[in-house]
Amino acid sequence: MICPNAVGRILEIHRHVCLLDLPRGAISLVILFNRLGRNEMKRIVDIQLKHLQKLLADRNVVLDIDDKAKTWLGNTGYDPVYGARPLKRVIQRQLQNPLATMLLSGAIKDGDMVTVTVHDGQLAINGSKLAQAA
User: Fold this and answer.
1) How do the domains of the chain map onto residue ranges?
2) Phi, psi for 41 (deg, rounded to 5)
3) Minimal CA–CA distance to 16: which of 30, 2, 5, 4?
4) DSSP character for 130?
5) Could you count the other beta carbons within 10 Å of the beta carbon of residue 125?
6) CA distance 94 to 117
7) Would the pTM count as exceeding 0.85?
8) What percent of the chain shows pLDDT beyond 70?
């Protein structure tokens, strides 16, 4: 079902495309997506964290991330224009890279359970706040 606001937007896109001097039939379909909202971010965070958990499973490391940390990741990785695109980078810089450093230094060992939460507005792994990554 097309909402009334979408009809105007479709006509606007059509007028713009017609001005581009494209060959007739070059565009056969226009798909409009609703912007991603913060409500959808929790599910996307869970999907992205499953990828990280699979990587850690090779070392038998279990990742226990509480809801505060998931919300922090979702809020930090959300952009009103780009939706969840920045989320993967946020997870890599704020969680995956510090975990890798801790594994290499021996702070996390094979078979450990790693807890992730938020303290004072920053992610904390096993109770230690992480320095803000650039």
Assistant:
1) 1-32, 38-129
2) -65, -35
3) 30
4) P
5) 20
6) 12
7) no
8) 75
